[in-house]
């Protein structure tokens, strides 16, 4: 199983970016997909997590600015990030909880850097 993330970059404050993360491999079922982030010197924190058959949750700091969505056919989760501010600067990591022939567990993608300039 691989999670391939993309979409990071450099943007000015108030701008927007859209991250995407695609799961590939032998996958029986995807339970959850979402995003965490880690800023320099800080712990990794939840940004948004989507229960594929249920609801989404967001960190308070991004509520109303970020929107998570999922394309079941492409096994791809998106994070639309609007009104970005410098505090959103971090490496963003994709997470999926999914089932394979051998395991049902969390998988992490490689990080994608998001930098917001003031």
Structural class: mainly beta
Mean pLDDT equals: 96
Strand count: 11
Q: What is the CA-CA span between the terminal residues?
A: 37 Å
What overall geometry do the principal axes of the alpha carbons give? elongated
Written as H for each helix and E for each strand, in order along the chain, the element string is EEEEEEEEEEE
Low confidence ranges:
none
Beta-strand content bin: over 45%
Biggest β-sheet: count, sense, barrel? 7 strands, mixed
Explain how this protein is built.
With about 120 residues, the protein is mainly β. It contains no helices and 11 strands. The strands form 2 sheets. Strands 2, 4, 5, 6, 9, 10 and 11 form a 7-stranded mixed beta sheet that branches. A hairpin with a 4-residue loop joins strand 5 and strand 6.
Record the SSE blueprint.
Blueprint: E1 2-6, E2 9-12, E3 17-24, E4 29-38, E5 45-51, E6 56-58, E7 66-71, E8 76-81, E9 90-99, E10 104-108, E11 112-117
Parallel strand pairs: 2-11
Antiparallel strand pairs: 1-3, 3-8, 4-5, 4-9, 5-6, 7-8, 9-10, 9-11
Q: What characteristics describe this protein?
A:
118 residues; 11 strands; mainly beta; seven-stranded mixed sheet; 0% helix; four-stranded antiparallel sheet
Give a short synopsis of this structure:
By secondary structure, the chain is mostly beta strands. The chain has strands at residues 2-6, 9-12, 17-24, 29-38, 45-51, 56-58, 66-71, 76-81, 90-99, 104-108, 112-117.
């Amino acid at each position: 199983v691989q999670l391939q993330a993309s979409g990071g970059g450099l943007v000015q404050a108030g701008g927007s970016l859209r991250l995407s993360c695609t799961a590939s491999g032998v996958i029986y079922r995807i339970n959850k997909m979402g995003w965490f982030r880690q800023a320099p010197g800080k712990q990794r924190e939840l940004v948004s997590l989507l229960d594929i058959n249920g609801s989404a949750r967001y960190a308070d700091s991004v509520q109303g600015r970020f929107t998570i969505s999922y394309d079941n056919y492409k096994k791809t989760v998106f994070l639309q990030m609007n009104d970005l501010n410098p505090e959103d600067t971090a490496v963003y990591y994709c997470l999926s909880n999914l089932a394979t022939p051998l395991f049902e567990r969390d998988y992490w993608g490689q990080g994608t850097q998001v930098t917001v300039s003031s």
